Amino acid sequence: MTVDDHAIEQALARGAHQQIGQYRLDLATGVWWWSPETYRLHGFEPGDVVPTTALVLAHKHPDDRERVGTILEEARRTGAPFSSVHRIMDAHGGERFLVVVGQGRRDRETGEVTELVGYFVDVTRTVTEHAQDRARHDIAAAAATRGTIEQAKGVVMTAYGVRPDEAFARLRRASNDRNVPLREIALLVADEAARGGSDVLARVDALLRRR
What range(s) does the PAS domain occupy (predicted)? Predict the structure, then answer.
């Protein structure tokens, strides 16, 4: 599944179905503090593990791990505010989509960045729902396309007295010859059939032979 930026923006704007955890990283010692919610986001109960940078990175999705490590290193160096959307694999093997935001805190005397603090926001449900909506839309579009192609196949079968596989082959050949998507060829054939007339079969034949 690909992370959709628009879906993330909607999730953060609505604030619905979100679990939010806090974190703090002491850069001098490498010790992390997690809120109870952050433990649970990672599939643990508070106290089950000692949070470390190695543990944090180990739970990142393999495809996102290097990028998150780079973001943390840059934040450690500059202390500038940062944000990232990435996937983690929790202790139970489940995949979650998280938004992480944070910034550095500096020592008042030395000006050095001493801590990173921020939040993890679980947007898994919103991302999943968005992906399901897109899948339903794609399925509906595919079904509509399939219906158009089946209709065109019926027209070609009638025009040439051929079987369904041969009718489809003729549509596909016309699509390839004209470098036009199959669905567009099918729509043209279906439109000609809908127009009717005594010369409909001749028009369909001319359409399929056109280059």
Answer: 23-79
